[in-house]
Design goal:
- The chain is α/β, with parallel strands linked by helices.
- The protein is about 40% helix and about 15% strand.
- Strands 7-6-8-2-9-10-3-11 form an 8-stranded mixed sheet. It has a two-stranded antiparallel ribbon with strand order 1-5.
- Helix 14 runs antiparallel to helix 15.
- The longest helix is centred in the last third of the chain and has 23 residues, at about 255-275.
- It starts with a helix and ends in an 11-residue tail after the last helix.
């Protein structure tokens, strides 16, 4: 026990590790798009993405109270049918016209590099391209490292064209809103009519009058509505939407609600992609990137957990669709990618090269 704790302390004092300077060739688009939308689904496992609802968890009344109804909704004889029932947009659209990485059954692997397997370290790694061992909890501390959204926002071509809407209220610290000047609407922040138009009053009313238990994570539907309203009103080039309820429901041990929230996220993505593909300026000129911040336990008894000692917590995934993304669908080659490579990918998708730690 003392040896394990000493090792943990050693890792906690390690310096910043910048990782690879660029994303691997497999991630490079054929041509960059003008716009980019990034969506994260917090703590959503690769197992459900690639194999659908877990039959063992669907049959477990302690985590799925109405097993009969949930089986009718999400169970099927094989993995391909189960995943399509749960996530029709992913498997009817992205699998046909985009790319999906992270199905470990084929040896296609995406992992976080950070030791802690928590949300703040995961998102920090994703957006800064660095594994900073000093970032080891979800505490609200300003991120000392420059992130790729901040980097883009500092460029003239992206000035006032980069924005973030997130359910989790820690993102102003992860993206260092104070230093970066990025517009970041998080948690139960009020909506500004200038930012989201007439919908602002309705969202503010729902947030203040009808949400009984405000916590660190706003309802994803409110986050999505605010982001969509901003998108339609201001037409940013880079939009980040951080969804969070999937992780919240998993932590409560409710597999049924975790699945339902994933299905809602899939529907939001379908709605968003349809708008992008039917709107001048975005149609055939926008890439959609979807990923997660960490994995979860890979066993029936540990599915709801994620931390440095729970096996499976480092395992993530990635999906992309857009005009410069080859339509290779589910990638089945044996490959190993890391979360820290996504910052370079994000910049590359809009024709830029992210310089680590520099504006």
């Amino acid at each position: 026990m003392k040896t394990w704790f000493a090792t943990l302390l050693l890792f906690a004092t390690l310096p910043v590790f910048s990782g690879e300077p660029a994303p691997p060739a497999a991630f490079q688009p054929l041509a960059p798009a003008h716009n980019l939308v990034i969506v994260t689904i917090d703590g959503f496992r690769w197992q459900e993405l690639f194999t659908g609802a877990d039959p063992a968890l669907l049959s477990n009344a302690s985590v799925t109270p109405d097993t009969s109804l949930m089986k009718m909704m999400y169970d099927a004889p094989d993995e391909a049918m189960r995943r399509r029932k749960l996530l029709p947009f992913f498997w009817n659209v992205i699998a046909e016209r985009g790319q999906l990485y992270g199905n470990r059954h084929y040896g296609n692997k995406l992992n976080v590099s950070n030791l802690y397997h928590l949300s703040y370290p995961g998102y920090a790694e994703m957006f800064t391209g660095q594994t900073d061992w000093r970032i080891r909890s979800n505490k609200k501390k300003l991120n000392p490292n420059v992130n790729v959204l901040e980097y883009l926002h500092a460029k003239e071509a992206f000035r006032d064209k980069v924005v973030a809407f997130t359910s989790w209220d820690v993102f102003p610290y992860i993206l260092n809103k104070k230093r970066s000047g990025l517009p970041v609407n998080s948690g139960y922040d009020e909506q500004d009519e200038e930012a989201t138009g007439e919908l602002a009053a309705s969202i503010n009313h729902v947030q203040s009058q009808t949400v009984c238990h405000e916590g660190a994570t706003r309802h994803d539907q409110l986050t999505f509505m605010a982001a969509r309203a901003y998108l339609e009103r201001h037409r940013p080039r880079v939009l980040f939407i951080g969804l969070g309820e999937s992780d919240e429901y998993a932590h409560t041990g409710r597999y049924d609600l975790y699945l339902q929230q994933a299905a809602k996220a899939d529907q939001m993505l379908a709605d968003l992609w349809y708008w992008l593909q039917t709107t001048p300026g975005y149609r055939n000129n926008t890439t959609l990137l979807i990923t997660t911040d960490h994995g979860r336990g890979n066993r029936t008894a540990t599915w709801s957990k994620h931390d440095l000692v729970t096996r499976g917590s480092s395992q993530t995934w990635l999906a992309m669709i857009g005009p410069g993304i080859p339509a290779t669908g589910e990638v089945k080659q044996e490959q190993q990618f890391y979360q820290r490579q996504l910052a370079g990918l994000i910049a590359g998708l809009v024709g830029e090269q992210f310089a680590f730690g520099k504006l």
